[in-house]
Amino acid sequence: MKKINKDEVRFVYGTLKSGFGLHSGCGLDNEKIATLEGVATIKGYDMWSMGYPVVKRGTGTIFIEAYHIKSQEIRDRIDRIESGAGYCTEEITVTLENKKTITGSIYIYKGDTGRLEQIKSGVYK
Question: Average pLDDT, stretch 24-48?
Answer without folding.
Answer: 96
